[in-house]
Amino acid sequence: MRRPIFSKRRLLWLSLFLGLYLAFCAYAAKFLVDMTLRQPHPGAMALAPPAWLMQASSDQKAGREPQEVSVEAQDGVTLRAWYFMHSGATRNAVIVLHGLGDTRRGMSGQAELFLRHGYNVLMPDSRAHGASGGELATFGILEADDVHRWVSWLKNKLPAGGCVFGSGVSMGAAIILQAAAREPRFCGVIAEAPYASFREIGYDRIGQPFHLGPWFGMTVGRPIIEFGMIYARSKYKVNLEEASPVAALRNSSVPVLLIAGLEDDNIPIRHSRMIHELNPNVILWEVPGAGHGSAISDARADYERHVMDFINFARDSRPDGVGHQAAAQ
To answer: Are residues 171 and 219 in contact, defined by beta-carbon separation less than 8 angstroms?
Structure first.
């Protein structure tokens, strides 16, 4: 008589192994979600504009210190930012958004570029970062409405007929894309190294410590993702499935320039390609030799040319004629 392939003993060991693995996945999911949503929050003491940006502001005839400004988010959180004014005559402004675990200082290079080209620049700290309030980073779920409030703040400050652009890197790029889908007042947005969705970047993150591709997170590590989604909903009331630039942009008409470094091993280029494939109106610039969010330093001249060509085109092609009015001022 042939012995069964799985004896009771083997089934017992298999069940024990599976139980231990699922318990490990649940613990890992809790640890990763807590660590990801609750970012270290240095507060205002860590914030001061870098001296070279202050000098650049002075050189571009801003002629004043940046203003420390704030708005109140929908949930009552106070959001803070620096506002650099190029001159009293400009009608246009750019909101620049930093990445996860960073502060507004991290967008100083982009701020200098836009100041040099005649734009006012608003540099917010994302919620739960820098000097802004809030306990949780929600990867665009709440932040998209935060950006909406900053756009309204800028529209009240700028002369009529101006353009507001958005520019973000990494998490800031993903937030600006989700905001653009809800904010038709944007003349255009620039997004460098965004994730396609929280779920998709989760697949990458699970495999990255082992130098594996997203397939690992989609298969062996999948329980960690699923437990994490459940835990975030039950503990923090945050549905991370909603953090999805790729879904948000499907029906957006706001012009978008995507920038993706071919050497980015943090948020791989597949994310930008996924976003581009689902919305052919999105322009994708793939940057040889650039790493994560580093195109402005790895390809400085090309970066400036691509970004400003896009901004000029988006501004001047506004269907309501606003861009032409703004350019003429």
So the answer is: no
